[in-house]
Amino acid sequence: MLKAHSQLFEHLTLATDLLLIAACWVGAYAVRFALFASPAGIPPFGDYALQLVPILLVWGIAFKAFDLYRPHRLASHVAEWIDVAKASTLGVLVLVAIMTFAFRGYDYSRLAILTFWASSIVVVSFWRATFRELLRFARRRGYNQRFAVVVGGGEPAAEVLRVLRRRPDVGVQVLGLLSDKAEVPASDVRWLGGLDEVRAVLDRHPVDIVIIALPHAEYARLGAVLAGIGDDPVAIHLVPDVFGLASLRGGIEEFAGIPFVHLRESPLYGWNLVLKRAFDLVLGALALGLAAPVMLAIVVALKLTSPGPVLYRQERMGLDGRRFRMLKFRTMRVDAERETGPVWARPDDPRRTGLGAFLRRSSLDELPQLLNVLRGEMSLVGPRPERPSFVEEFRRRVPGYMLRHKVKAGITGLAQINGWRGNTSIEKRIEYDLLYIEHWSLAFDLKILLQTLWLGFVNRNAY
Question: Model's pTM, two decimal places?
Answer without folding.
Answer: 0.54
